[in-house]
């Protein structure tokens, strides 16, 4: 199937009428991964219905706090101190997103960071749907060794110049998305579109200014209740059984979480769901894996995991496992 898609993808003569009319390929760099972390740079490549680049835009953003992992994104306090605030660029950013499907690599993360910034600014981001290029690559059955952006880029021969720079990451993704979109159109593949729910309220706790280190450190846990509870759709894959150390996760596995996490719990759950895993609210003998940073705690899930012999990994290990989830058996 993959070869057939690749052959037809160069110039599909018929375009699916149900496909979106435009896309906004987005990348944001942030001070961290938690609820109160901030965007420090953003880039948007606007594409037409067939994935052709129309224009691009980039800005740095003053997060009004410590910039976080400078060794990753390279944006120091000195650089960001003179950058515009998010409220200053919110209108321009919104104009770039308006009426388009937001496309990103691990799109749920970029969307949530954007939605939070707009909620802080007492506005709504004009985005109603998002498309994750990880999910699209799975739909297309691309033979990737993992789901990193660099692997997707290499597959399509796209050369990355500055990893973790928002503008270059967005460019790379736009160039990799175009052939992916054409392959999907040629094969009549249904695009993995997800609803985006804008936030309407926000309350920040006091945060350190630029040049001051956050008291909890980079990525520290902050409890939140910013998003209303919602019922997740049923996992479409059967449970293949328990996770085995040294082997990958497999779609359909039942994953439970216990205790505090450095990345917001719902973000971890969304990542798991988009990878094809079943997020369980309780632990039973059918649970494939328990994710906890405190395996010695006395929570009911940890106690049951000991009783049932359920495998346990910490959050960092789970994040690594999410990068390469094995497809469900046919």
Please characterize this protein's 3D structure.
It contains eleven helices and ten strands. With 330 residues, it is an alpha/beta fold. Mean pLDDT is 85; it is low at 1-8 and 207-229.
Structure, briefly:
The protein is 32% helix and 16% strand. With 330 residues, the protein is an alpha/beta fold.
Characteristic key phrases:
330 residues; alpha/beta; six-stranded mixed sheet; four-stranded parallel sheet; 11 helices; 16% strand; globular
Distance between the termini: 15 Å
Indicate the low-confidence ranges by residue numbers.
1-8, 207-229
Portion of residues within helices: 25-40%
Roughly what fraction of the amino acids lie in strands?
A: 15-25%
Order of helices and strands: HEEEHHHEHEHHHEEHEEHEH
Trace the largest sheet across and list its strands: 3-2-1-4-5-6
Q: What structural class do helix, strand and pairing data support?
A: alpha/beta
CA-based shape:
globular
The count of helical stretches stands at: 11
Radius of gyration in whole Å, from Cα?
20 Å
Please tally the β strands and state the result. 10
The biggest beta sheet reads: 6 strands, mixed
Mean pLDDT: 85
